[in-house]
């Protein structure tokens, strides 16, 4: 059994640690991912201690050099992490102490593992936010890049998975560009709250050591310091908020994946998926399965589950730090990994897919996509909306019985429905003319869509 006295906290203890406890409580198997952030934070802490007179310049230089050397060893894969040392922080500190003796033991002056862990985790999340933001920007560019390729293509828009109104393909691509744009805004807002330094709040009450938290904050590019030590020690809002933003990103990806899975079926035939992101069947030779899209949709469940776990994790925890909080990192790591991989692959699929123009055009006049435009045409000549809705509904019923589009009805039939329906109805019937009839800001009107495409190209740094 491992000796309690060999632990960094073991002075007051008698007896040995049950090895089952060590296996149960270790976190180095997953928090080793924080090593770069841990070393960076410790270097900033050591330099601050030297500035405040708690370390000599020589001690500072020895610690900084030792930490940098350990970082290189971990990156090279030659560093041995030990389970009995519990976490990445103690593994790094123990190795430093083995090499520097009492000089290494001075590093932990004025801090606790509570604020050290929180600092490392905030640094890691900040990096993950930046990576995710860049990947989302690439996905947005992939959608906006399609706008030149698919200019002028009209798609059926759906509500309740029933054909509703015509929309430009570019309007559809921009809809997802907007969704991922809001995700990027949420990431930026989350980053602002993440980017507050907890180091120096120590275990829960602060420290009597003369430290300079602002010095460390500047060295680590934090925008400020956490104001309350009790709050800092117990806080995981920043991690849960990040997990929430990742969940919304995953949900948006899942919606997109579901639509493109449907669009790639023989029933829709709207889309040809790039084969590099599909797989086949072990028994059916004709199959081209949209496995990447299905997995993006499926992995969303993991991200949602991770967020739920985090919310339950902090439910009812008393102030300040509790060991429960150790369980936050596997959930956040998994969500970040999952979303990053999903967004990266999504951009590749968006770039490589092709719309099946003939199949789309062949069935575009089905579903009476121009019915709402015809109703609004009637409203514009003074007919109340509810009355116009009923009149056009009856005309759609006539056309459905004959299995013809509205544009195939005779003028006499329109005028029998309402005298205001004169020859001008034919200027708004048919999907192409219905598209041209739109005029509201944010609509699928060609001029509005073209303006939005230009704006997004400018925002994303794309050629006009």
How would you sum up this structure, described in words?
The chain is mainly alpha-helical and 464 residues long. Helix content is 60%, strand content 5%. Among the domains are: 20-109, Fumarase C, Chain B, domain 1; 114-152 and 184-361, Fumarase/aspartase (Central domain) (Fumarase C, Chain A, domain 2). The strands form 4 sheets. The protein has a two-stranded antiparallel ribbon. Strand 5, helix 9 and strand 6 (224-225) form a beta-alpha-beta unit. The protein is elongated. The chain starts with a strand and ends in a 5-residue tail after the last helix.
Count the beta strands.
Answer: 8
Low-pLDDT segments, ≥5 res = none
How many separate helices?
19
- Using the alpha-carbon principal axes, give the shape: elongated
Q: Biggest β-sheet, characterized?
A: 2 strands, antiparallel
Q: Using only CA atoms, what is the Rg? A: 30 Å
Instruction: Report the end-to-end length measured between terminal Cα atoms.
Output: 68 Å
Q: Helicity, in percent?
A: 55-70%
CATH superfamily of the domain at 114-152 and 184-361: Fumarase/aspartase (Central domain)
CATH topology of the domain at 114-152 and 184-361: Fumarase C, Chain A, domain 2
**CATH first level of the domain at 114-152 and 184-361:** Mainly Alpha
Query: What is the correct CATH architecture of the domain at 114-152 and 184-361?
Result: Up-down Bundle
Class of secondary structure makeup: mainly alpha
């Amino acid at each position: 059994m491992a000796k309690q006295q060999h632990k960094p906290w073991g002075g007051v203890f008698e007896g040995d640690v049950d090895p089952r406890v060590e296996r149960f409580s270790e976190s180095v198997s997953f928090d080793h991912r924080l090593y770069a952030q841990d070393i960076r934070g410790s270097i900033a802490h050591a330099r601050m201690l030297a500035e405040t007179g708690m370390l000599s310049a020589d001690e500072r230089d020895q610690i900084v050099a030792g930490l940098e050397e350990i970082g290189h060893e971990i990156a090279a894969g030659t560093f041995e992490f030990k389970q009995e040392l519990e976490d990445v922080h103690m593994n790094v500190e123990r190795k430093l102490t083995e090499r520097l003796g009492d000089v290494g033991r001075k590093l932990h002056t004025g801090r606790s593992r509570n604020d050290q862990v929180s600092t490392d985790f905030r640094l890691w999340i900040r990096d993950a936010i930046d990576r995710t933001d860049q990947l989302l920007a690439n996905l947005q560019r992939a959608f906006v890049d399609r706008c030149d390729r698919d200019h002028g293509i009209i798609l059926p828009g759906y509500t309740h998975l029933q054909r509703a109104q015509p929309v430009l393909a570019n309007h559809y691509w921009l809809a997802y560009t907007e969704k991922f744009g809001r995700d990027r805004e949420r990431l930026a807002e989350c980053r602002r709250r993440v980017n507050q330094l907890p180091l120096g709040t120590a275990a829960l009450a602060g420290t009597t050591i003369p430290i300079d938290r602002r010095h460390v904050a500047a060295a680590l590019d934090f925008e400020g310091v956490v104001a309350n030590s009790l709050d800092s020690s117990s806080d995981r809002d920043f991690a849960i908020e990040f997990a929430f933003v990742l969940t919304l990103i995953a949900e948006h990806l899942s919606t997109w994946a579901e639509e493109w899975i449907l669009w790639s079926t023989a029933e829709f035939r709207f889309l040809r998926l790039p084969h590099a992101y599909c797989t086949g069947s072990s028994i059916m030779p004709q199959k081209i399965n949209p496995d990447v899209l299905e997995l993006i949709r499926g992995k969303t469940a993991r991200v949602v589950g991770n967020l739920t776990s985090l919310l339950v994790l902090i439910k009812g925890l008393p102030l300040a730090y509790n060991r429960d909080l150790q369980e936050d990192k596997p959930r956040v790591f998994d969500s970040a990994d999952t979303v990053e991989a999903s967004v990266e692959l999504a951009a590749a699929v968006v770039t490589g897919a092709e719309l099946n123009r003939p199949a789309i055009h062949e069935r575009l006049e089905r579903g009476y996509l121009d019915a709402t435009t015809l109703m609004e045409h009637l409203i514009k000549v003074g007919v109340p909306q509810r009355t116009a809705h009923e009149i056009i509904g009856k005309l759609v019923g006539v056309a459905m019985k004959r299995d013809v589009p509205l544009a195939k009805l005779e003028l006499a039939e329109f005028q029998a429905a309402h005298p205001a329906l004169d020859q001008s109805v034919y200027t708004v019937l048919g999907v192409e003319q219905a598209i041209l009839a739109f005029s509201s800001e944010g609509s699928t009107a060609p001029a509005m869509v073209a303006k939005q495409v230009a704006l997004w190209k400018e925002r994303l740094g794309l050629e006009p």
